[in-house]
Design a protein that fits this description.
Radius of gyration: 13 Å
Shape: globular
Structural class: alpha+beta
Strand order of the largest sheet: 1-2-3
Distance between the termini: 30 Å
Number of helices: 2
Largest sheet: 3 strands, antiparallel
Helix content: 10-25%
Number of strands: 3
Order of helices and strands: EEEHH
Strand content: 15-25%
Length: about 80
């Protein structure tokens, strides 16, 4: 499973990428971040029928793989 975020910097959306196609996960998970991972978000994604979701058109800009909150600080 490959999770990606795409869109304009700072406004990326969460998506799944498979077979060169990107599919929107916004109906399944709020974001791709630590909270989603800790709360069973991967299981929700695995249970979804992703192949039935329409691929995102074009070649969107890929962003960071996970969200970073404004209150997060880098590890020392």
């Amino acid at each position: 499973m490959k999770l990606v975020r795409y869109g304009a910097p700072g406004r990326e959306s969460r998506h799944h990428r498979e077979d060169g196609k990107i599919r929107d996960l916004s109906r399944i998970v709020k974001d791709i971040d630590g909270e989603m991972l800790a709360s069973g978000g991967l299981n929700k994604i695995k249970k979804a029928n992703l192949k039935r979701m329409k691929p995102v058109p074009g070649k969107p800009r890929l962003g960071p793989a996970s969200a970073v909150s404004a209150t997060s600080s880098p590890s020392a």
